[in-house]
Amino acid sequence: MTPTAIVFLIGAVLIVWGGLVASILLLRARPERTDYPAGGEHDARDDAGPVERDT
After folding, report:
1. Tens of pLDDT along the chain (55 residues)?
2. Neighbouring C-beta atoms of residue 28, cutoff 10 Å
3. How far apart are alpha carbons 54 and 27 in whole angstroms?
């Protein structure tokens, strides 16, 4: 391998594994989101089924 290829290989490995390590550290610091935007409540009504039409 040429020295240029080795430098690019090392750079690519550092970017990939560095991103993995950074994401693991960030997930350990904040494992779950505590605040959510308004809305998104589950509305489980039993009476509101799909309309069935016999055509």
Report:
1. 899 999 999 999 999 999 999 999 999 988 877 776 677 666 666 666 677 788 7
2. 8
3. 52
- What pTM, to 2 d.p., does this model score? 0.50
C-alpha 2: how far from chain center: 37
What is the Cα–Cα distance from 16 to 8, expressed in whole angstroms?
Answer: 12
Contacts of 1 (CB under 8 A, 6+ apart): 9
φ/ψ of 45, rounded to 5, equals -90, 130
